[in-house]
TrEMBL record:
Residues 12-72 form the 4Fe-4S Mo/W bis-MGD-type domain. SUPFAM superfamilies: ADC-like, Formate dehydrogenase/DMSO reductase, domains 1-3. This is Formate dehydrogenase subunit alpha. Gene3D superfamilies: 2.40.40.20, 3.40.50.740, ADC-like domains, Dimethylsulfoxide Reductase, domain 2. It comes from the Bacteria. The keyword Iron applies. Pfam families: Molybdop_Fe4S4 (PF04879), Molybdopterin (PF00384), Molydop_binding (PF01568). NCBIfam families: Fdh-alpha. Keywords: 4Fe-4S, Iron, Iron-sulfur, Metal-binding, Molybdenum, Oxidoreductase. The gene is fdhF. SMART domains: Molybdop_Fe4S4.
Amino acid sequence: MQALHDMDVSTSQAITTICPFCGVGCGMTLQVQQSGAGTRLSGIAPQLNHPISRGQLCAKGWSTPFAIDAADRIKTPLRRTPGGFQPISWAEALKSIGESIRTILEEDGPQALGVISSARATNEDNYAAQKFARAVLRTNNVDHCARICHSPTVAGLKQTLGSGAMTNSASDIEQTDLIVVFGADPTENHSILGGHILRAREQGTRLIVVDPRKTRLARIADLHLQLRPGSNIALVNALLAEIFANNWQADQFLDARCEGLDALRKSVARTDADAGAEVTGVAPELVRSAAREYSQAKKAMILYGMGVTQYVSGTNNVIALSNLALACGQIGRPGTGVNPLRGQNNVQGACDMGCLPNVYPGYQAVAEEEIRNKFARAWQVSVAEHAGLTSLGMTLATLEDKFRGLILFGEDPVVTDPDQTRERRALDKLDLLVVAELTMTETAKQADFVLPAASFAEKDGTFTNCERRVQRVRKALPPPGEARADWQWLGDIARELGSDALDWESAEEIFDELAALTPIYSGMTYAGLDREHGLQWPCNKEAPQGTAILHSDRFPIGRARLIPVHHVEIDEPADDEFPLVLTTNRLHFHYGCGSMSRKSPLLERETPDGILFINSFDAHNLSLSQHSPVKVSSRRGFIETRAIISDEVPAGLVTMPYHFREAPSNRLTNNAMDPVTKMPELKACAVRVEPLPADAQPRTMDEILADEAREVAGD
Ligand SMILES: Nc1nc2c(c(=O)[nH]1)N[C@H]1C(S)=C(S)[C@@H](COP(=O)(O)OP(=O)(O)OC[C@H]3O[C@@H](n4cnc5c(=O)[nH]c(N)nc54)[C@H](O)[C@@H]3O)O[C@H]1N2
Ligand SMILES: Nc1nc2c(c(=O)[nH]1)N[C@H]1C(S)=C(S)[C@@H](COP(=O)(O)OP(=O)(O)OC[C@H]3O[C@@H](n4cnc5c(=O)[nH]c(N)nc54)[C@H](O)[C@@H]3O)O[C@H]1N2
Ligand code: SF4
Ligand SMILES: [Mo]
């Protein structure tokens, strides 16, 4: 009777919001049903009129309800005890966390503490996180996953163009004559944009793919430059050499808008397509054709991803791409540009909000006294003078006993940072680890306190997508149990420490504060964002409707800079002991650490939990057949999984996704870093693959660790 009664009075509502997975920022509506039994999520649908997704979602977007409605959502604060995690009240959690922070502050000062924020959470949460670090703890030790994603983009494009973001918009894909997909796999990872590329291709747009793997787009490209991993600069310099040798460069554009041409010309004159081939392995004819096509196209756009940034040469790789676009004048117009495909739903926003150790919101440098004074005045506190530690810097400082307390939300570094063994050791060593999460991740399992976080469906805010579009996210559901938005619990800890810096009543109040302090957001309000489908920054007095294409008339630094860069070898090439190179990439049906996408039984059944892709030549040499169990070892450890024989990867290269905690490829990856940004070389390390007995079941990482612990105990 009760249920019938509830049904009688139930009402349903569709709430407009944005997909919480990737940086495309597709529009979705959450269908909720209100009845006597409460409010529940009853369905999900794409927004029909959204400018990018136009009534579509990819498989991950459609699976959002599984992640939100997960049975194992964390509902109360938890404290780690020798007997396992125990639920505690918010008051107890805040008191203990506050005491721990105060002790560390007194004993070692603010440098021993830091915050890692989340590119999955809202701008408002991220603004709160960096303000908490800077105005409450008084440290610039604040970072997030952009460090291991597009930090080389932020640093590289800032130097060359003056702004480290996608220069053009998603809609340019359908307005261009030539698309260059460089070290990215958009049909898998930016699926709705991948669909736009496929459509453009059908309509005659030319396509060049630069990737060591035969990706889906590589198979249908006009040219596939299948370079050796880590040889991007050698390839781009060979392209530039051919362009200058044939006088294909854009003289007028170079003359009017760039500086540094002579030095660039001179530096690439040492190479050409033939010399480049020795490093890249790409046939010289292909390089000459690509150089001609790209420089001669009326409009050509570069879309690039992790195959560019995740190298020790990451920042220079980005500079190389910028050199190429500038030399050919393929920038500042529709259908052109240097376009980093930002990965996470709000990684652009987390960077914009200043969750980086060297910049305040809006990329305003910590190093500049005037900027420090601006924020000190606005926040009415004194602020730290020096840039802070990066995320991996905090890991290293912990191992050196210089860092003791970390507040982390919405990241799972045990699965997603390089060299898992070292990462676990560092987290274990912390005196205080607070993790706010939706569900128990591998990282949360190592925390002293786990806090229940509200998901995107349970809070208001904004996400900024890869084309700089700031879009509204709306509360559709009450958070489960006692979960709170990240800005709310951060505010609670601040109050516990005696600070009112995070005393906001609503997400909108935070947005108004951040817009006032962030010049590129200064023309935005919630009402303005609601009017259309968000606004693209910069949005200010000069551009009240936002900006679809950057650098049309001028660069923020005046003239763009051409900067010579040179090839560097990957840090760990193959050798006799570890004769194959491992690269890591993504699978369409899984996302990041898997903690959200793997809640969906529909996505789970698409792929086995852990895979090694290997070429038929190498498989034959190792006597492997399809799905053979294998052990994969690097200098840092080993994992067990199954082999998939595929000619997607060339001989000598093997690849693994990084989504699976059972067979975590980051047990193997190298932590060598780009000297500029500290980006680890996640895209190449040396490994050895060995067959396990044909009937063996590969052990999960937990099983391997348990076996090792038993061996140590002498069982
Ligand atoms: N399904 C799914 N989608 C996602 C994600 C996810 O986890 N799952 N994650 C999101 C995030 S955080 C991000 S950052 C984006 C990343 O999206 P992408 O940038 O597309 O990411 P990856 O698949 O890691 O790597 C891209 C390509 O780089 C190639 N590559 C490797 N080495 C080199 C090289 O030396 N040169 C060149 N030119 N290419 C190379 C690889 O073969 C691979 O095809 O995806 C986002 N979308
Ligand atoms: N080997 C290898 N490793 C890689 C990469 C690679 O290509 N190869 N790519 C790297 C890249 S590009 C990236 S971006 C990183 C990603 O690494 P992570 O950021 O660690 O990965 P995600 O899976 O996005 O983890 C996000 C977590 O946030 C939680 N979450 C979601 N929304 C919210 C929220 O609103 N509040 C809170 N508190 N939590 C929330 C989810 O439950 C999830 O557990 O991985 C990197 N690691
Ligand atoms: S393409 Fe990205 S934003 Fe769009 S539905 Fe898929 S995961 Fe969500
Ligand atoms: Mo990313």
